[in-house]
Amino acid sequence: xxxxxxxxxxxxxxxxxxxxxxxxxxxxxxxxxxxxxxxxxxxxxxxxxxxxxxxxxxxxxxxxxxxxxxxxxxxxxxxxxxxxxxxxxxxxxxxxxxxxxxxxxxxxxxxxxxxxxxxxxxxxxxxxxxxxxxxxxxxxxxxxxxxxxxxxxxxxxxxxxxxxxxxxxxxxxxxxxxxxxxxxxxxxxxxx
Length: 192
What we know:
Layout (H helix, E strand, L loop, with lengths): L3 E9 L3 E6 L2 E6 L2 H6 L5 E10 L4 E6 L2 H11 L6 H10 L2 H9 L14 H14 L2 H10 L2 H12 L4 H9 L9 H13 L1
Parallel strand pairs: 3-5
Antiparallel strand pairs: 1-2, 1-4, 2-3, 4-5
Helix pairs in contact: 2-3, 4-6, 7-8, 7-9, 8-9
């Protein structure tokens, strides 16, 4: 199994990177944030997961080992294949997934493209057993309910969950705690 990969990004595709390793270009499917940050000609290191099927060998890459671990956990959910698992990691951060699971907000998972309400509920049930609640609850305290309200407001304004998550993550640590103020600062992410 290919566990990690280091090479030069030679091409950025719609949902993958072509990484040159020892003269061989490998197509690696990666989450959207990783693809967005990649630049052709730069060296990249990633944790990988190889999916072996009868008709294909498909390589998936991740920035961190925890992203790869979450991808593997998601593959254990009935009805979730590699494309849906990658879509989850492209749409939501690990923190947002943990918040959704341990705050009983499985509806957030159903906003991921390719994930319906039933699959979101299956994922929430499966992940609740696999993720560590202590980590999630400490993060829940740090990223309180007001951020989920800001997320809801941004998606209601027409921004995608990915865009809304990026705006929330861009908030400075000393940002005000009031939802309206946080929303105003988050909207500045899109205009600035």
